[in-house]
Write a structure and sequence with these properties.
Six copies of one chain form a homohexamer. Chain A is α+β, with helices and mostly antiparallel strands. Chain A has a single domain, classed as Alpha-Beta Plaits. Chain A has four helices and five strands. A five-stranded antiparallel sheet of chain A has the order 2-3-1-4-5, covered by helices on one side. In chain A, a hairpin with a 3-residue loop joins strand 2 and strand 3. In chain A, helix 2 runs antiparallel to helix 4. The first copy, chain A, starts with 24 loop residues before the first strand and ends with a strand. The relative contact order of chain A is 0.25. Strand 4 of chain E pairs antiparallel with strand 4 of chain F.
Amino acid sequence: MEKKLSHVTPAGAARMVDISAKNPTVREAIARGTVNMLPSTLELVKQNALKKGDVLAVARVAGIMAAKKVPDLIPLCHTLNIDSVTIDFKLNKSNIEITATAVSTGKTGVEMEALTAVSVAALTIYDMCKAAEKGITINGIYLESKTGGKSGTYQRKRP
Amino acid sequence: MEKKLSHVTPAGAARMVDISAKNPTVREAIARGTVNMLPSTLELVKQNALKKGDVLAVARVAGIMAAKKVPDLIPLCHTLNIDSVTIDFKLNKSNIEITATAVSTGKTGVEMEALTAVSVAALTIYDMCKAAEKGITINGIYLESKTGGKSGTYQRKRP
Amino acid sequence: MEKKLSHVTPAGAARMVDISAKNPTVREAIARGTVNMLPSTLELVKQNALKKGDVLAVARVAGIMAAKKVPDLIPLCHTLNIDSVTIDFKLNKSNIEITATAVSTGKTGVEMEALTAVSVAALTIYDMCKAAEKGITINGIYLESKTGGKSGTYQRKRP
Amino acid sequence: MEKKLSHVTPAGAARMVDISAKNPTVREAIARGTVNMLPSTLELVKQNALKKGDVLAVARVAGIMAAKKVPDLIPLCHTLNIDSVTIDFKLNKSNIEITATAVSTGKTGVEMEALTAVSVAALTIYDMCKAAEKGITINGIYLESKTGGKSGTYQRKRP
Amino acid sequence: MEKKLSHVTPAGAARMVDISAKNPTVREAIARGTVNMLPSTLELVKQNALKKGDVLAVARVAGIMAAKKVPDLIPLCHTLNIDSVTIDFKLNKSNIEITATAVSTGKTGVEMEALTAVSVAALTIYDMCKAAEKGITINGIYLESKTGGKSGTYQRKRP
Amino acid sequence: MEKKLSHVTPAGAARMVDISAKNPTVREAIARGTVNMLPSTLELVKQNALKKGDVLAVARVAGIMAAKKVPDLIPLCHTLNIDSVTIDFKLNKSNIEITATAVSTGKTGVEMEALTAVSVAALTIYDMCKAAEKGITINGIYLESKTGGKSGTYQRKRP
């Protein structure tokens, strides 16, 4: 099977792919990403969480809102109505793992919504911790899985 | 020196840091990130570039526009007037390196603008290539350097 | 029946409620609010209206546009396609009563759209009259009624 | 002194007031508002807060972000760079009092930013509690005080 | 048949037309517009295109993104989910002809999406060429054709 | 003097021009445009205006708000703080002439703000009149004059 880019015409010009002939189905996408920081920086996030602080809540809200802004951020993405977005954080010793799950009933997938939610939640954590550590690094943003739509289920292979 | 989070009150609540007493200075920030993909996927991007295609142009525009949207994306970031944003791509065998440079004259830095430009350019490349490869991974988004402002110059240390 | 908050997980974290299993129905919501001002300030609004002025038209447009911005303003609200918004003003001696009616065909209600339309129309009236009176007060923003959806019809009880 | 509406021309047409000849000064505005609900609904908010839940954090973020969206919401408001926004909640027996403080250094005041922050924080509380009580009412949104600018200091009179 | 304005009430007030009773159909709209400039300015665009430059790609992206922003730009337009947008440029000796095609499956047409895509692509060309020629003029923005919906097919008559 | 495009690098890539070294000055731009329609359609607009209707007020608000959205619409435009926007309409027998004036104190001009205000006001008139006449055409959008900035005053030559 020949691989090709769907968002450009044969002449190479950008286009929004025509989905008018597709059928609406329930679609789900799960994306992951990691924010790496010094244990001492991560300790500040944990202390804030312990005293009912807002740091992770702000990052979660930022990620959820960013999923809704995808058509405004990613030029060739379709506008779609999202049924659900959830964002989970796992705090390890020197990193925070972010998982975002997006669900939609429509003619196009929600991979970009899940990936964007992870990215903006990660950027928000960077923003809130940058006074303590400028070297924080965002790593490994990828699609974990997707279901629904004509191309069916995708599950990322473990290395 | 005690490390702390600047975007939360002592009680842990989110706040936008008060910058009214700061002086405007010229500030610059450079951020980096990498999009890893199969050589066969990257070949599609290169072929599109060869025939004057839009793939990298779309990613560049998306990154520049995203830098301007930072106050709307990252909840506690200040609105600021950006003087300049540039985005460069380096196409290697199995990845695309993205570098974004943001400049502003103001009371707060442009680190988040540069990091967001890189992130959204990377997400746009993912979007335009995902029909060919869903396993594309975004890696190593970090601040390379910043200048200006009270905290002065920061240069990321090479490992 | 136990009352609970639908927008948080059992652990307390914010989430966008999953509506993927719900059926689309026609939904309507009516919201009300009042802007209280001095009779002399209200007289200015009336004089502007008499000479075909724009004050109430601007407030009406602001309210209608705000209804469309709800997913961008209220963090956990779903994106939805609004079928109709209308905004009416009743000018009394020392207040303006605002009524907004929103209609949508979808899986989630339009209460927030109607309430937000009223709120932003009220804020716009404040903005346009604040040079004359800074003490203007917005009062009594509430949901008058809603129809459609699984929870059915709601009608606010008169005191 | 004759009272008049500054946002309309003598002919009654809407206009954005020309501030090009004004000098930038530090300006602050404080606004207030109240969300009235049943004690049993407010108990749910308190329980969520007790277990480090996100309800008030989401409302706070929504209010802060809304302050930055004022030029996009209130048609004749100027774009301005906000130096700081903070939002405080006081939980009483049957209501939540919201106070928003906005600071800016510029040629126009931040009254609308503070009032809009209160309004959207209140709407967000409504949204998160509406599954428990649809009769929640938003009351008494007003400007508490402002400082800076040519018109100087304003302090709301206590009744 | 009496002609009338659909977006105002009999009393003359603005309203968003109620489309809740309409049936979704596939709808397409094609709009055109022309950007007139000196042959020497157009030569710069052609040279940029020859060396795989971004000028037309940026204008194309701007037009596509603007089509998605219509509900936020045109006050009484409905939010809708666009299935496809494409933008084509034809470079003549002293003008660039722009054609935009928008497709949607829904209860309201996409004329405004196609017309707005043309307008913003034209404005973007102006922006990118204005350092070379300030006298560039945008002309002849009109609807070429539409299909779908209750009013059926429209085809602009040739003069 | 050699003409060139300022928004692309020598290699042809899009960039936001660096204005960090420029000095802020007061700048003004005036733009014009015309909406051509049948006299019978224009009569509907006049009748609406006669009964204090909202048609022209909605178009005026749309134009003013669009001027504030320029950085979000035109990819390489800088964010700037607008001091003033006014929009005037002149109703002739078979067309409406639109004039927009934008003022800003800053490091970059407001030509795009004035041109965009005219364009979106024109599109809004189209939207509100399209039920009566689909053949309405927008013509002659151009910059009438600009003052301020290093390039100084520009005045369009009369043909």
